[in-house]
Design brief:
Pfam families: ABC_tran. The protein is built from seven helices and ten strands. It is of the alpha/beta class. The chain has a six-stranded mixed beta sheet. Strands 2-1-4-5 form a four-stranded antiparallel beta sheet. The longest helix has 16 residues.
Length: 229
């Protein structure tokens, strides 16, 4: 394994519901190498999305450390964490999370509005990102004018536009038919292989996991390593 871009040590995560404490992750250690494409698999409730949220800085561990690109993100304040996410993480969700009143270009531009880039530079980056995902001609279309696969491509372009350290994908093909899902997975594979993007993807779909370079299988908050493909 090469340089670890993500490193978790002794991570525990629990939630309190009334008087009950629910353990989600138990004493978890994990390294993810720079340039890896990792599929997190496991049954519902196994802790996959919780782990993804910790890696992406959307949640904090109850104990232990989470380091991404050499930074202890579990020690950052909420404001610092928001700025860190904007610089380092590109998110891709199952239901796209596009703004319905904005066209594709404006949706892709959203992460750049947190930067100091001039408008002309933002537009250039947006158009490059849309070209990478094969939607250079659809920049003026709103989400309602796009197919599900096209909408997910716009979401991937939005995740790419700030050139993040890590792409974090939560069931990115869960709302798509098999053919469209495979097209999206081929795109993610290309981003990994040709553009060197490190990708962590939660999926329940064994066929989707086959596109990754490694698989980790989770059960009851613990991890077992899948064989490299």
């Amino acid at each position: 394994m090469g340089e670890a871009i993500v490193s978790l040590r002794g991570v525990l995560k629990h939630y309190t519901r009334g008087k009950q404490t629910v353990e989600v992750l138990e004493s978890l250690d994990l390294d993810i190498a720079r340039g890896d494409f990792l599929a997190l698999m496991g049954p519902s409730g196994s802790g996959k999305t919780t782990l993804l949220n910790l890696i992406g800085g959307l949640d904090r561990p109850s104990a232990g450390s989470v380091s991404v690109a050499g930074e202890r993100i579990d020690q950052l304040s909420s404001g610092q964490l928001a700025q860190w996410r904007a610089r380092h993480i590109g998110f891709v969700f199952q239901f796209y999370n596009l703004m319905p009143m904005l066209n594709a270009e404006r949706n892709v531009e959203l992460p750049l509005l947190l930067t100091r880039l001039p408008a002309a530079d933002r537009l250039r980056r947006v158009r490059v990102a849309l070209e990478i995902v094969g939607l250079a001609e659809r920049g003026g279309h709103k989400p309602s004018e796009l197919s599900g696969g096209q909408a997910q491509r716009v979401a991937i372009a939005r995740a790419l536009v700030a050139d993040p350290t890590l792409l974090v994908c939560d069931e990115p093909t869960g709302d798509l038919d098999r053919k469209t899902a495979d097209e999206i997975l081929h795109l993610l594979q290309t981003l990994n292989r040709e553009y060197g993007k490190t990708i962590v993807m939660v999926t329940h779909d064994p066929k989707a996991a086959e596109f990754a370079t490694h698989q980790l299988h989770m059960d009851k908050g613990r991890i077992g390593t899948g064989e490299p493909l």
